[in-house]
Structure formats: C-alpha cells, structure tokens
Design goal:
The protein is of the alpha+beta class. It has one domain (10-163): Beta-Lactamase, CATH 3.30.450. The protein is 35% helix and 23% strand. It has helices at 10-19, 29-42, 77-80, 102-105, 141-166; strands spanning 46-52, 56-63, 69-71, 87-89, 112-119, 125-133. Strand 1 (46-52) and strand 2 form a beta hairpin. Helix 2 (29-42) runs antiparallel to helix 5. The termini are far apart.
Length: 168
C-alpha cells in the first residue's frame, strides 16, 4: 500500500479547509442529496463528499457507508487531491498503490474508485466527490462529465455554506 504523498503547500490547503468551518459538522441535506443522486446515477453502492485533513478523510456526506471517517494514510482521496482532474482506479487490485490497502482487502472491499477533487478558487483541493464500488468497472467521458458536474455542485454548496456562516 502506498500512503498518499503530502501535497505541495499543504499548510495553506489545511488553513483553507479549517476556515470553512465544515469539518465535523452535522449532515446537511444539500450534500446528502448530491451523494444519493450520484449513487443512483452511477449504480455504485458508495458515494461520498470527502474532506481530507492532516490525519483523516472525513465524510461530509455519505451514501452507502456507515463510518464517518477513515485514516488519511489509507485513503484513495488523499491521492486524488493531488490530481488536476478526476482520478479513476478501474480495479484497485490491479493498482500497486492500492492492492494491499485495507479498504480493498477488507470492508468495503473497494475495487473501483473515481474521485473528483473539490478545488476551491485559489486552487486548494480540500477533498473529493468520490464513487466506490466493490466491482471493477470502466469510466467513460460521459461519466467524467457527470462526476465533474456533481463535484462543481458540491464546491458551490461548500462556498454557499461558508458565505452563509460568515454573513451577519
């Protein structure tokens, strides 16, 4: 298993994430609807809005997963925030970064992963909008476009939420 590398300018990325005041907050329907739609649209059992801090990936919204966080060192999303666009792993058992990952070898038995970085204005990637499946699968251009649009909606909701919290 390959732990995700630390992104360049990690301290600034974490500061942006902390300033959003979103970590460890209650579930919100605006995010829950997005992951429920994604799970249905892509026919995957798990869809997440995942935020990556120093030690973990915490799920602001989750469909199909009971836990609300996992350690960063085993996260797929920790890798995905380093990519300029959607990271797709068609079969985690065939990918040396993930083949022996406990999320692959044990529950939820991830084989497929697609993660679109949640990139805020200024470039900070604070997490991902991601899809997980215990079945290997392909991901075509239409899938990329739909996941990209859902990611953009999640970023807009994060920004809207932040604006609402800062308004007098």
């Amino acid at each position: 298993m390959q732990a995700p590398p630390v992104p360049p300018q990690e301290s600034q990325r974490l500061q942006v994430l902390r300033e959003l005041l979103i970590l460890d907050t209650e579930p919100e329907q605006r995010f829950d609807r997005l992951v429920a739609f994604a799970s249905q649209e892509f026919d995957v059992p798990i869809a997440l809005v995942s935020l990556v801090d120093e030690n973990r990936q915490w799920f602001k919204a989750r469909a199909g997963l009971e836990v609300c966080e996992t350690p960063r060192e085993i996260s797929f999303c920790g890798h995905a925030i380093l990519t300029p666009d959607i990271m797709v792993v068609p079969d985690a058992l065939q990918d040396s970064r993930f083949a022996d990952n406990p999320l692959v070898t044990g529950p939820p038995f991830v084989r497929f992963y697609a993660g679109a970085p949640l990139r805020l204005p200024g470039g900070a990637a604070i997490g991902t909008f991601c899809l997980l499946d215990p079945r290997p699968r392909s991901f075509d251009a239409v899938d990329h476009a739909i996941l990209g649009a859902l990611r953009d909606l999640a970023v807009e909701e994060i920004q809207r939420r932040s604006s609402e919290r800062q308004a007098p």
